[in-house]
Amino acid sequence: MYGMYGGLRAPFARRDVILWPPVGTQKRLDDFVARLKFHFPRDCEITIPHAPGLQPPVKTPWYLADYSARCSSEFRFVAAEGGNRSAVALALRHRGVVLTEAAEKIPGGGTARFLPNGAPLDPGDVEMETFWLAKFHDRGRATASKNSRRHFEEFRKSLPKKKKVYLLCTGPSLSRFAEFDFSDGYVIGCNTVVSNEALMKHAAPDFVVASDPIFHFGPGIYAEKFRVDLAAAAQRQRFLFMTLATYHHLVPHHVMMEPSRVALPQLRLDVRARSFDEAWSVPQTANIMTMFMLPLARTLAKEVHIIGADGREPGETYFWKHDPASQLTDKMQAIKAAHPAFFAKRNYVDYYDRHCAIVASQIAEIERDGGRVHTLTPSFIPALRDRLAT
């Protein structure tokens, strides 16, 4: 159906992506342009209708990184009145339409956001803009994923055979890393462990995984700092970085690593911890441990040891606490300013309950297959609390 849609509109559609409705304030214009430079880094024409009197941006909002040097797309600013045109009609006439307000406020917006060339961008309404805007970059995703599987297989074969695997999560107990010797197993680190140089040197991870669309693949200064730290760690040590094929178009511009050191599995709808030998895909679980770490661990070895998966203490008001040395604490206010809808719409209790249930089901799956899972540090997650190594 998507192919038919593209074929029908191709003969008369313009090449540009248009924002709609017109942007009403200078602050929002500055914000949208900074985000678009991240999401459309090259070979794109972007038309931005705006209220009369506004000027093309000359500064980047403090909470977003400046991607001007990496962006070769062309921006066309047009003064425009009103915003009553149908977003669906615009999606048919242009390469794509990016909605600048909540979809329900725009004529046709509720439909346009689900078209293959339509996506919402309003940070006050959209929780994960990167996933929505990735629809514009489907071309080449399958090829990138296929090539990256070859990189994974080649890297895996280059590693010595081991019977254990260690998972480094970022909870407070990760601060105890120096108590453990990781040399007898494969090591998988996640997220901002790359920012902790002492940990990286001691644990020497074989794999680093990260996949969050705002913390790791968003336009904010938090995500940019993560990617800078990732590139710096890759200069010091040899590991394979794994993330989603969804980000294949962003990796060459924003992840400063050799392509052969990046692997991009596809995303699927179930929550099973299938090994990568079974399928080059990861489950859609919204948590890095269950999305990447446990499936990768199952691929590598039968014995799994976890450190730093503390879980959520009673009375917590956020996801959970983190090890300060392995978290970008000085960038937290910036990411909240960059993605307000993500935090405002998050139900942390429901998220945690679902996470605990998926952890339990994946561990049971691994153990039915003859594997063993232990946590080396205490955890509030029920399935791990009952598997504390003594």
Q: How does this model look, in words?
A:
This protein has 390 residues and is of the alpha/beta class. The protein has two domains: 2-136, no CATH class; 141-385, sialyltransferase cstii, chain A (Alpha-Beta Complex), CATH 3.90.1480. 34% of the residues lie in helices and 15% in strands. It has helices spanning 2-9, 26-39, 87-93, 109-112, 129-133, 141-158, 197-203, 221-236, 251-254, 288-300, 332-338, 340-344, 348-368, 382-385, and strands at residues 17-20, 45-50, 74-79, 96-99, 118-120, 164-168, 185-190, 207-209, 240-242, 262-263, 266-268, 281-283, 303-307, 372-375. The protein has a seven-stranded parallel sheet. Helix 10 (288-300) runs parallel beside helix 13. The chain is elongated and about 70 Å long.
Topology summary:
Layout: H1 2-9, E1 17-20, H2 26-39, E2 45-50, E3 74-79, H3 87-93, E4 96-99, H4 109-112, E5 118-120, H5 129-133, H6 141-158, E6 164-168, E7 185-190, H7 197-203, E8 207-209, H8 221-236, E9 240-242, H9 251-254, E10 262-263, E11 266-268, E12 281-283, H10 288-300, E13 303-307, H11 332-338, H12 340-344, H13 348-368, E14 372-375, H14 382-385
Parallel strand pairs: 1-2, 1-4, 2-3, 4-5, 6-7, 6-13, 7-8, 8-9, 9-10, 11-12, 13-14
Helix pairs in contact: 10-13
